[in-house]
Write a structure and sequence with these properties.
By secondary structure, the protein is an alpha+beta fold. The protein has a domain of about 110 residues: Cation efflux protein, cytoplasmic domain (Alpha-Beta Plaits, 2-Layer Sandwich), CATH 3.30.70.1350. It is built from four helices and seven strands, in the order αβββαβαββαβ. Strands 4, 5, 6 and 7 form a four-stranded mixed β-sheet that branches. Strands 1-2-3 form a three-stranded antiparallel β-sheet. The protein is elongated, with a radius of gyration of 22 Å.
Length: about 170
């Protein structure tokens, strides 16, 4: 006699919604646990940390033309960013906050937009890209993508001052 260890399925043949996703508490954050059938027929549990969803959102936002950079807000993120730069950690989730539920998430972004870019068009493109990437990579539905445009980037900000205004250097 064999025992069936496959998760229960609904009449449509998919994993039942109660077993499909559950939220587990872990080290101060909630991780998404997905129970999904695989094409190989091997079951299992996949856990997706909040930090992974945050990094996906940050990278997806940076891919959109018109987004110059992500910026942190608040004292905690500012110190975290400083610490990351000193220790050499990447800043993929800087300016990103996520709330992850059982089947959906909410994303808050703080961005710097390039001067002359249409802010409504950039925001719409960011929402589409972030939602699409999170959905494709995690299976989560994105309920909201809230965008705070914290600053504008002007192209001459990176160039510094003209050569004639700088003191001569000794060689």
């Amino acid at each position: 006699m064999t025992q069936n260890t496959t998760p229960p399925t609904s009449s449509a043949g998919s994993v039942s919604s109660a077993a499909e996703r559950s939220v587990t508490a872990g080290r101060g954050s909630t991780d998404v646990t997905a129970r999904t059938p695989t094409t190989s027929g091997v079951g299992g549990v996949t856990k997706i940390a909040d930090s992974v969803v945050s990094r996906i959102a940050g990278l997806a936002a940076r891919e959109v033309p018109g987004v110059h950079e992500m910026t942190s807000t608040g004292l905690g993120q500012a110190f975290g960013g400083l610490t990351g730069r000193v220790t050499g950690q990447d800043q993929m989730d800087r300016g990103v906050a996520v709330q992850v539920g059982e089947v959906e998430c909410i994303v808050d972004l703080n961005i710097v937009v390039e001067y002359q870019a249409s802010i409504p068009q950039v925001a719409d493109a960011v929402r589409r890209n972030v939602s699409g990437r999170i959905g494709a990579m995690t299976g989560l539905q994105t309920k909201e993508v809230n965008i705070n445009v914290a600053d504008l980037f002007f192209p001459d900000q990176d160039q510094g001052q003209p050569q004639q205004d700088q003191p001569p250097t000794v060689r």
